[in-house]
Write a structure and sequence with these properties.
It contains two helices and no strands. It is mainly α. Helix 1 (2-21) packs across helix 2.
């Protein structure tokens, strides 16, 4: 299905970009809250935890055989 594959491609790109963004950050220092945009009201820690969970799931439950 084209829509599904494009969606998963976008999610994988989001995960990769997020991991690169937070690579040099200590999770204990992620205390800022997003005031605008898609994560408004979320802390950086929440976004980082989401990215880590998505990355873990894509590695544990691979779509490819």
């Amino acid at each position: 299905m084209i829509i599904k594959s494009e969606f998963l491609k976008a999610v994988n790109e989001f995960i990769d970009a997020g991991l690169m963004h937070y690579v040099h950050h200590n999770p204990d220092d992620l205390t800022q809250v997003f005031m605008r945009g898609p994560f408004a009201g979320w802390s950086e820690r929440q976004v980082y935890d989401l990215i880590k969970d998505l990355d873990q799931n894509r590695n544990l439950y691979k779509l490819e055989p």
